[in-house]
Write a structure and sequence with these properties.
The chain is an alpha+beta fold and 938 residues long. Among the domains are: 28-78 and 89-223 and 243-293 and 358-404, Rossmann fold (3-Layer(aba) Sandwich); 424-499, no CATH class; 701-738 and 781-933, no CATH class. Helix content is 33%, strand content 15%. The termini are far apart.
């Protein structure tokens, strides 16, 4: 108690020792921190540093710790393994200073010990992959190497402990790795200790002397040491000389020396070696196994302890001499790493472990040093016996650089030391080298499998298939931890091979054919193709060619397989239009008219999903027929327009008064439709899923007038090229035009509902002669008007024909034209694609596509309205239509509507059907034409 301050010192129970001496071991970091701060009494003692490392078995006793107890003659470490405390599996160095003998012991515990190995296995997670586990173990091995390098740099003598009597040749590889690492980090260590108060030789060589390495083996019971019995004939010297243990020690010395000399770990000049072995002294010691008689062992221990206690009361000599006198007087046997002592009869066999070690320590403490150089001109090696304080300063600096990495001043050096650890890979990671060699041999086989049967240019699908085959071949031959790394390299190599001039252009044409060119760039506006550019600049080409007709159908020309919608639906027809139908009268569809020099395409944020667009269109079409019928409840014979559900508005408007004005009122577009955007344009084609108020930059449709109605001759058909024989005749569509007089106008209005219409297809014509349900003698006379309609199909070879039904082609063998009415094609959904009647010799079927609609409007009071809607794919597919709907075709005219060659949305093109796809999903909806009478008011 000092003043009001009470100091309480707590000593852990494991540090309290029985007897006069109270000794314990601490970590090297704690020792260095304590000794640099405290002023201890032994700071000026000249010390010898002994390091102990090696491997231990799975027995309960700790072999290396027991050696320290034997050498220090104190119970420093527990002889039995303690319960696992959950510590880290990293390497650790524990230090114990024996002040009596002036020896500092350093004990290295690493993953080579059973206790640390158990902790390392527990720290590994269950689901860790093989490569990660390998990195974990190699990390622990590299850490062990750094701790060993530290011990080889600060110790005078090193003890390598092994759990059996067989030398482990893996130490040869370990020592070569440590020697290579030491040569790499030697300049860094010199920079770290340049200010320490040691000799110049120590600063240059970074160690007090070339350490001497001694080997301690434990006999595992296969070899027994027999006592002095009758065979010795009373001659104990002969038994010592020829004991199996001594012969084993000599054999191990010769074996170890030859191995290290062959691998050049040991050379003639000891100053250049990682360690040395004595030339004229024993450097291998074999600890014999314990006696199998437990009673005799206990009696021997009791006799030994009693003798030691008697000698303690009489002896006054301390230090090493005290131990030598005790050994000579008591004739004790050497200690065992497992049981502590061992008696063989009552005589000492060979020498003890402490005597074996002390002959080397004595050379250090007497400052004689080690003269282990051999050869003709041996060079003396440097040697220095440091004081305790000087050694602590050097050891602390090296600890900061090699192990702890906590000092800011030495952080840069520590980082450089960590960067030099790659030199260990070639020595320690033998399994990794084997795996790398094996994987490197498997790579050429995998590359050959990838490149087998490959075309010069190929697509991503072919690349992935070949890569999968290459990986299968690689996995059959590659093994080890480098498997994943070289598999990734195989991925990269195959990708480089593919992208280096073998990658096929991935662009698909609008007919679903790949571009045959290798990967290339498209030329910009005004830019010319450049084949020498890398990648080359050229247009897409699938090498597919077809024959198509112009807008009016009078001229045909070959065309390349299109890759963009403008080339398919606009550019090709514009080129042919200059040669054929440029001067024909036409109805222009509205397109985008920019008001800014740089218009932008509209985004598809407000665009509805194609499925929703298609569903809403179908729902409207399903509701329209019922609505039309409800407007005309008393009509016994519906007209074609009413049966199709499209002429209700026009008939109702004509009933109320001025039909033209009312019809314009009902068809008046909304504000968004009447004022399309002049800043944003529609990037694709017009369809039911497009946002309102947007127009494309070009129209994919064309409506051209071929001439007056008389320009079509129903007896000869269309006079255009490439029609199949007898298939160029348009289908007649007869429409009733009722002419009424003033006197029966009121009567007829009350009966007919005030409208004049044509009869529905396949219905009885009302008011016709011979018909039933007429009005008797007061019936009116009806006139007929004939409209000609033709749905023209064209295949890829330019063969053309008119269809008389969804599955029928017009066939006229003689004069007079076709007799098939047009009601069949107008009442049904016409297919967009049908099998071509002129199939080739190949197995792949050819399809003919609906490309034109011919309409001949007679010179009669008729209003024929055109409203095409195309569904070019299975749901959800939007309905495509022109930029203007409900197009009025004037009387006495011959019109041809050209459908788009390809259909595309913002999400991509609508490809033609494949062989196994049903064609009924590709269709032109019914109701494409409707007609109303246009009789002026009286």
């Amino acid at each position: 108690m000092t003043g009001n301050v009470c100091v309480v010192v707590f000593i852990p129970p494991e540090f309290v020792m029985k007897g006069a001496n109270m000794s314990f071991a601490v970590s090297i970091g704690s020792l260095l921190r304590t000794e640099t701060q405290d002023d201890t009494t032994h700071r000026d003692d000249d010390i010898c540093v002994v390091g102990v490392f090696g491997k231990s078995n799975m027995q309960s006793a700790a072999a290396k710790e027991s050696l320290i107890n034997i050498l220090a003659d104190k119970h420093v470490f527990s002889l039995f393994s303690e319960a696992d405390d959950g510590g880290a599996p990293e390497s650790q160095i524990q230090a114990f200073y024996n002040q009596e003998s002036r020896v500092l012991y350093l004990l290295l515990s690493s993953v080579c010990d059973s206790r640390q190995l158990l902790r390392a296995c527990q720290s590994l997670s269950a689901g860790i992959v093989h490569s990660d586990a390998h990195d974990f173990w190699k990390g622990l091995e590299r850490q062990q190497c750094l701790h060993l390098l530290y011990m080889f740099s600060v110790c005078h003598v090193l003890l390598l402990v092994h759990p059996n009597q067989t030398f482990d040749v893996s130490y040869d590889r370990l020592f070569r790795a440590l020697d290579a690492l030491r040569q790499k980090v030697l300049p860094l260590i010199r920079a770290a200790i340049k200010d320490c108060p040691v000799s110049k030789e120590w600063k240059v060589n970074c160690r007090p002397c070339p350490p001497r390495l001694l080997f301690v083996f434990h006999m595992n019971g296969s070899l027994k040491v027999s006592g002095n019995g009758p065979d010795s004939a009373g001659n104990p010297d002969k038994a010592k000389k020829h004991s199996p243990r001594r012969r084993l020690q000599h054999a191990l010395e010769d074996q170890i020396y030859r191995i290290f000399r062959k691998s050049r770990v040991l050379t003639n000049q000891s100053s250049n070696c990682l360690f040395t072995v004595p030339a004229n002294q024993a450097f291998v010691y074999v600890i014999p196994t314990a006696d199998e008689d437990p009673v005799g062992v206990l009696l021997g221990q009791l006799r030994s302890n009693c003798t030691l206690y008697e000698q303690d009361s009489t002896m006054t000599v301390s230090g090493p001499r005290r131990y030598q006198q005790m050994r000579r007087s008591t004739r004790q046997v050497s200690f065992s790493g497992d049981s502590g002592t061992m008696l063989m009869g009552s005589q000492l066999l060979d020498c003890s472990l402490k005597e074996f070690l002390w002959q080397h320590i004595d050379l250090v403490l007497t400052k004689k040093g080690f003269d282990d150089s051999v050869g003709r001109n041996p060079q003396p090696s440097h040697f220095e016996l440091p004081s305790y304080s000087k050694w602590v300063q050097v050891a602390s600096r090296l600890h900061q650089v090699l192990i702890s990495n906590t000092e800011e001043e030495l952080a840069e050096l520590a980082t450089k030391v960590q960067g030099q650890l790659k030199v260990l890979e070639g020595f320690l990671e033998a399994d990794t080298k084997f795996s790398e060699n094996r994987c490197q041999k498997a790579l050429p086989l995998a590359h050959s499998a990838y490149q087998s049967n490959l075309p010069h240019n190929y697509t991503t699908t072919v690349h992935k298939n070949q890569l999968a085959q290459a990986l299968r071949v690689y996995s059959q031959h590659a093994r080890g931890v480098a498997f994943q790394r070289y598999a990734l390299q195989l991925h990269e190599d195959c990708y480089k091979f593919w992208s280096n001039g073998h990658q096929l252009c991935e662009e698909r044409s609008l007919t679903d054919q790949h571009c045959v060119h290798k990967f290339h760039l498209l030329p910009q506006s005004g830019e010319k193709p450049d084949m020498d550019h890398n990648p080359p600049i050229m247009n897409h080409n699938s090498r597919g060619r077809s024959t198509s007709s112009c807008n009016c159908g009078k001229k045909q020309a070959p065309r390349d397989d299109p890759f963009d919608i403008k080339a398919a639906n606009y550019d090709f027809y514009q080129i042919l239009e200059e040669k054929c139908c440029e001067k024909l009268e036409r109805i222009e569809f509205p397109v985008f008219q920019p008001s800014t020099p740089d218009p932008a395409p509209a985004t598809n944020q407000d665009q509805c999903h194609p499925c929703e667009a298609s569903g809403s269109g179908d729902a409207e079409r399903q509701k329209e027929p019922s609505t039309a019928q409800s407007h005309t409840p008393g009509e016994p014979s519906l007209s074609l327009a009413l049966s199709l559900g499209h002429s209700t508005d026009s008939l109702g408007a004509y009933e109320e008064g001025d039909g033209t004005e009312a019809q314009d009122q009902q068809k008046r577009p909304s504000l968004v439709d009447r004022q399309p955007s002049t800043v944003e344009y529609l990037p694709g084609m017009m369809h039911s899923g497009c946002p309102k108020g947007l127009l494309p930059k070009f129209s994919s449709w064309s409506l051209v007038k071929l001439g007056p109605a008389k320009s079509y001759n129903c007896h000869t058909g269309l006079e255009q090229p490439s029609f199949l024989p007898g298939s160029s005749f348009l289908l007649p569509w007869d429409i009733v035009i009722r002419s009424r007089s003033e006197e029966d106008a009121g009567l007829m209005d009350s009966l007919d509902g005030g409208t004049s219409s044509w009869p529905a297809p396949n219905k009885t014509l009302m008011g016709k002669r011979g018909s039933t349900g007429g009005l008797g003698r007061n019936r009116r006379r009806d006139d007929m008007a004939r409209v000609f309609v033709g749905f023209e199909y064209e295949d890829s070879r330019g063969r053309r024909f008119i269809s008389s039904g969804p599955d029928k082609i017009v066939k006229v063998l003689g004069p007079g034209g076709t007799k098939d009415p047009a009601t069949k094609v107008l009442n049904a959904d016409m297919p967009l694609y049908i099998p071509s009647p002129s199939q080739g010799r190949g197995l792949k079927p050819h399809f003919a596509q609906l490309l034109r609609l011919f309409v001949v409007v007679p010179d009669a009071p008729l209003e024929v309205t055109l409203n095409p809607q195309v569904q070019p794919g299975p749901p959800p597919c939007p309905l495509f239509h022109p930029e203007q709907t409900d197009i009025m075709l004037p009387p006495d005219s011959f019109w041809v509507l050209r459908f788009p060659y390809s259909y595309s949305t913002d999400h991509g093109p609508c490809y033609p059907p494949k062989e196994n796809q049903p064609l009924n999903n590709y269709k032109v909806l019914r109701g494409i034409l409707k007609a109303t009478t246009a009789i002026p008011p009286p």
